[in-house]
Protein backbone atom coordinates (compact mmCIF):
# COMPACT_ATOMS: atom_id res chain seq x y z
CA UNK A 1 0.00 0.00 0.00
CA UNK A 2 1.29 3.47 -0.89
CA UNK A 3 1.37 5.58 2.23
CA UNK A 4 3.23 8.87 2.38
CA UNK A 5 3.79 11.18 5.33
CA UNK A 6 0.73 13.21 4.23
CA UNK A 7 -1.61 10.24 3.80
CA UNK A 8 -4.19 9.60 6.51
CA UNK A 9 -2.55 7.27 8.97
CA UNK A 10 -3.65 3.67 8.30
CA UNK A 11 -4.85 3.38 11.91
CA UNK A 12 -7.14 6.40 11.36
CA UNK A 13 -8.68 5.33 8.05
CA UNK A 14 -12.12 4.90 9.67
CA UNK A 15 -11.92 7.96 11.92
CA UNK A 16 -13.48 11.34 11.26
CA UNK A 17 -10.21 12.83 12.49
CA UNK A 18 -7.85 11.57 9.81
CA UNK A 19 -4.50 12.50 11.27
CA UNK A 20 -1.70 12.09 8.76
CA UNK A 21 0.79 9.27 8.97
CA UNK A 22 3.47 11.83 9.90
CA UNK A 23 1.28 13.11 12.76
CA UNK A 24 0.41 9.66 14.01
CA UNK A 25 2.34 6.39 13.65
CA UNK A 26 5.29 7.32 11.43
CA UNK A 27 7.48 8.75 14.23
CA UNK A 28 7.02 5.54 16.22
CA UNK A 29 7.95 3.40 13.23
CA UNK A 30 11.06 5.44 12.47
CA UNK A 31 12.39 5.84 16.01
CA UNK A 32 11.66 2.53 17.71
CA UNK A 33 15.21 1.29 17.34
CA UNK A 34 16.70 4.39 18.99
CA UNK A 35 13.93 4.68 21.57
CA UNK A 36 13.77 8.46 21.02
CA UNK A 37 10.06 8.54 20.17
CA UNK A 38 7.91 5.94 21.85
CA UNK A 39 4.12 5.53 22.12
CA UNK A 40 2.97 6.98 25.45
CA UNK A 41 -0.02 4.69 25.83
CA UNK A 42 -0.93 1.09 25.11
CA UNK A 43 -3.50 2.30 22.58
CA UNK A 44 -0.86 4.28 20.68
CA UNK A 45 1.35 1.22 20.53
CA UNK A 46 -1.60 -0.90 19.37
CA UNK A 47 -2.39 1.62 16.63
CA UNK A 48 1.24 1.76 15.52
CA UNK A 49 1.35 -2.04 15.33
CA UNK A 50 -1.81 -2.09 13.23
CA UNK A 51 -0.25 0.47 10.88
CA UNK A 52 2.90 -1.66 10.75
CA UNK A 53 0.78 -4.61 9.61
CA UNK A 54 -0.73 -2.40 6.88
CA UNK A 55 2.71 -1.23 5.77
CA UNK A 56 4.43 -4.59 6.10
CA UNK A 57 6.89 -3.43 8.77
CA UNK A 58 7.76 -6.83 10.23
CA UNK A 59 10.81 -5.47 12.07
CA UNK A 60 8.68 -2.97 13.95
CA UNK A 61 6.19 -5.66 14.89
CA UNK A 62 8.96 -7.84 16.29
CA UNK A 63 10.65 -4.95 18.12
CA UNK A 64 7.39 -4.00 19.83
CA UNK A 65 6.54 -7.61 20.76
CA UNK A 66 7.46 -8.66 24.30
CA UNK A 67 10.43 -11.00 24.32
CA UNK A 68 8.54 -13.68 26.26
CA UNK A 69 5.90 -14.09 23.56
CA UNK A 70 7.71 -12.84 20.43
CA UNK A 71 7.92 -15.30 17.53
CA UNK A 72 11.35 -15.99 16.06
CA UNK A 73 10.23 -14.56 12.75
CA UNK A 74 7.13 -13.04 11.29
CA UNK A 75 5.83 -13.67 7.80
CA UNK A 76 3.13 -11.23 6.76
CA UNK A 77 0.39 -12.46 4.47
CA UNK A 78 0.62 -10.30 1.36
CA UNK A 79 -2.81 -11.38 0.17
CA UNK A 80 -4.41 -9.85 3.23
CA UNK A 81 -5.32 -6.18 2.87
CA UNK A 82 -6.02 -4.34 6.09
CA UNK A 83 -8.73 -1.74 5.61
CA UNK A 84 -9.36 -0.11 8.94
CA UNK A 85 -9.21 -0.26 12.69
CA UNK A 86 -11.90 0.31 15.30
CA UNK A 87 -10.73 0.69 18.88
CA UNK A 88 -13.59 -0.80 20.89
CA UNK A 89 -12.36 -0.16 24.40
CA UNK A 90 -9.17 0.64 26.25
CA UNK A 91 -8.72 -0.44 29.85
CA UNK A 92 -5.74 0.98 31.66
CA UNK A 93 -2.64 1.45 29.54
CA UNK A 94 -2.23 5.18 30.19
CA UNK A 95 1.05 7.03 30.32
CA UNK A 96 1.66 6.03 33.96
CA UNK A 97 0.45 2.43 33.72
CA UNK A 98 2.58 -0.68 33.44
CA UNK A 99 -0.10 -2.85 31.89
CA UNK A 100 -2.79 -2.13 29.36
CA UNK A 101 -5.67 -3.88 27.65
CA UNK A 102 -7.02 -2.75 24.28
CA UNK A 103 -10.04 -4.29 22.58
CA UNK A 104 -10.27 -3.67 18.85
CA UNK A 105 -11.69 -4.87 15.58
CA UNK A 106 -9.47 -4.82 12.50
CA UNK A 107 -11.11 -5.04 9.09
CA UNK A 108 -9.54 -6.70 6.08
CA UNK A 109 -10.20 -8.12 2.67
CA UNK A 110 -8.70 -11.25 1.20
CA UNK A 111 -9.44 -12.82 -2.17
CA UNK A 112 -12.36 -10.44 -2.62
CA UNK A 113 -13.90 -11.40 0.73
CA UNK A 114 -14.27 -9.00 3.60
CA UNK A 115 -13.61 -10.06 7.14
CA UNK A 116 -12.72 -8.72 10.51
CA UNK A 117 -10.59 -9.74 13.43
CA UNK A 118 -11.78 -8.97 16.93
CA UNK A 119 -9.16 -9.16 19.63
CA UNK A 120 -8.47 -8.13 23.21
CA UNK A 121 -4.73 -7.50 23.39
CA UNK A 122 -2.63 -7.05 26.49
CA UNK A 123 0.39 -4.81 26.71
CA UNK A 124 3.16 -4.25 29.25
CA UNK A 125 5.41 -1.25 29.73
CA UNK A 126 9.05 -1.77 30.64
CA UNK A 127 11.64 0.99 31.02
CA UNK A 128 9.23 3.43 29.43
CA UNK A 129 8.51 1.32 26.33
CA UNK A 130 5.22 -0.43 25.65
CA UNK A 131 5.26 -3.98 24.30
CA UNK A 132 2.55 -6.21 22.92
CA UNK A 133 2.24 -9.23 25.19
CA UNK A 134 -0.58 -11.47 24.01
CA UNK A 135 -4.24 -11.74 23.08
CA UNK A 136 -6.86 -12.67 25.67
CA UNK A 137 -9.08 -13.82 22.79
ZN1 LIG B 1 -1.62 5.89 13.30
Summarize the structure.
The protein is an alpha+beta fold and 137 residues long. It has helices at 26-31, 42-55, 58-63; strands at 80-92, 99-110, 113-126, 129-135. The chain is built from 3 helices and 4 strands.
Can you give a write-up of this model?
By secondary structure, the protein is an alpha+beta fold. It has a single domain, classed as Nuclear Transport Factor 2, Chain: A, CATH 3.10.450.50. The chain is 19% helix and 34% strand. The protein is built from 3 helices and 4 strands; from the N terminus they run H-H-H-E-E-E-E. It has helices at residues 26-31, 42-55, 58-63; strands at 80-92, 99-110, 113-126, 129-135. The chain has a 4-stranded antiparallel β-sheet, covered by helices on one side. A hairpin with a 2-residue loop joins strand 2 and strand 3 (113-126). The chain is globular, with a radius of gyration of 14 Å. It starts with 25 loop residues before the first helix and ends with a strand. The mean pLDDT is 94. The structure holds zinc ion.
Amino acid sequence: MEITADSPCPCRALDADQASYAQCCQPFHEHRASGQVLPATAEQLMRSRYSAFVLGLADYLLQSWHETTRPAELLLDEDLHWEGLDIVKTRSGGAQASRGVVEFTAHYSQDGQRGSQHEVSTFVRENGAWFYLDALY
